[in-house]
Amino acid sequence: MAVRVDWRQSIAFTGTVIKYLALAMAIPLAVSLLYGEDTVTFLASMAITVAIGVGLERLDDDPQLGPREALLLVGLSWGTVALIGAVPYVIAGYGTESALGYPVNALFESMSGFTTTGATATAEISFEQHSHALLMWRQLTQWLGGMGIIVLMVAILPEAAVNGAQLIDSEAPGPELQKLTPKIAETARLLWLFYLGFTVLLAVLLLVAHYLGVAPEMNAYNAIAHAFSTLPTGGFSPQAESIAAFSPVVQWLIIPFVLVAGTNFALFFILLRGEYAAVFRDREFQAYVGANAGLAVILWGLLFTGSAPPLDIGGTTAGVVENSLRQATFQIASLLNSTGYATSNFAQWSPTAQAVLLLAMFVGGSAGSTGGGIKVVRWLVVIKGIRRQLFTTAHPQAVKPVRLGGRVIDEDAVQAIFGFTVLYVLVFGVSAVLLALDASRVGMGLTVLEAASASLATIGNIGPGFGFLGPFGSYVQFPTTSKLLMILLMWFGRLEIIPVFVLFTGAFWNE
After folding, report:
1. What is the SS3 assignment for 420-467?
2. Cys-Cys link to 206, which of 29, 114, 169, 223 (CB 3.0-4.6 A)?
3. SS3 for 384?
4. Could you tell me the CA-to-CA distances from 416 to 92, 284, 306, 348 in Å, in that order?
């Protein structure tokens, strides 16, 4: 059969994406000049990035993307951007704690950044081990990947807007694309403006807290770095102790922005139009708020009654209440939205408290947000679909459509959501088994919970797991083969599995 996909067009446009990535490297380059660290690293990385981008662009002078070329572009772009993003790590020697596989560690770190996973393959995060510039690049990769590299290209490049709807639909998290304006390029620009606005607002508020004296550790560098990783629900931090390194004021300040990042960004556009009631009537938003609040209350009760080691709470009842509420609210918001920040080492919590966190990790953020996971709207449709199945089993002649917020969900969409959910759980389970087998092959002790959490944390773009993979742990101990598998899982998870799997089918390539 004749191959119908013009892969040259996809690769040429991928070159354009890579070329523009060099512009982003100007930010860590500026940081390197400010601190006098790793300037050569980023000059060399920018030169390599531009050379590769321009070289790939020349494969086709005027790429015209069809539907399948657009799908191929999305898959290629996310893979090659992670490869190019690893170049600064390799040049700087980042991740050399595992000497035999440090290029793989560099790729792991880059893929984790761009997919906003937040898992790390380096043994120590500190300014003594790594430069300010390199750690800022690590933060910036998450910010670039949060709203989507392709969404950004559609927003700024007219040629990308031709097939912008399909490009964004293949990249954006969630089962459907919600257009905010008649033109898809305007929608892309609005999404990025909301994203940028919230990022700037958080950085400013963190700096204000610093200058008011309630956040002494939150200097300008940390404020910008954490704003870069909060809104994309990334979870990277230049501090080894994550958000636990900062005052309770900082922790409370970050919580609402984590929740904002996991909310469908289309709702903010609706708010701007003054349609407040429509936002609060949104079924996914209601379920999202309910899941966060419900799980936080359950975890708060567990922590208040001693499910975590004693922390510095001042010895007062008010201190116990505030501390347990803050820990519960922060960890649920962070893990449910796949952010991966932490204010406590929950690997030391009781099995019951960890089970609540594991449940939160399975939920995911909203469709159209920067959150990972399965997504709240899919769970709503799955639950309603199961209820419909039970009803029609009891009443075989009944015709009962699946409704969400009074709107009938198309049957094709229902089947697609069930298919995605089953495939997600299947890939998660098989990968957990493969990770356990690979660990056994090299004599690495890996419990069932650790293997399962490693698989879920990477395919769900969550970051931390349990055991030695806790919030202050690292994936550096895994063998190279396991890291390569988890790199693929992060790629699959960010693009929601199906757009990647389709690329490996004969039906995609043939007429």
Report:
1. HHHHHHHHHHHHHHHHHHHHHHCCCCCCHHHHHHHHHHHHCCCCCCCH
2. 223
3. helix
4. 44, 18, 43, 39
DSSP H helices, 317-369, are 317-336, 351-363
| pTM higher than 0.70 | yes
Joined tokens for residue 246 = 């900062």
CA–CA gap between residue 332 and residue 350 (Å, rounded)? 15
Dump pLDDT digits (tens) for 353-387. 999 999 999 898 898 888 888 899 899 999 999 99
Q: 309: how many CB neighbours lie within 10 A of its CB?
A: 10
Torsion of CA 172, 178, 183, 187, to 10 degrees: -60
| Location of structure tokens 């531009």 | 50
Question: Nearest Cα to 258, choosing from 286, 230, 239?
Answer: 230
Separation of alpha carbons 372 and 159, rounded Å: 29
Distance of alpha carbon 401 from alpha carbon 413, whole angstroms: 12
- Residues 270, 268: Cα–Cα separation, whole Å: 5
Distance between first and last Cα of the chain: 6
DSSP 32-55: HHHHT-SHHHHHHHHHHHHHHHHH
3-state helix, strand, coil in the chain (%, to 5): 65, 0, 30
Q: Read off the pLDDT of residues 183-230 as tens digits, 9 standing for 90 and up.
A: 777 878 888 899 999 999 999 999 999 999 999 999 999 999 999 999
CA distance 401 to 218: 52
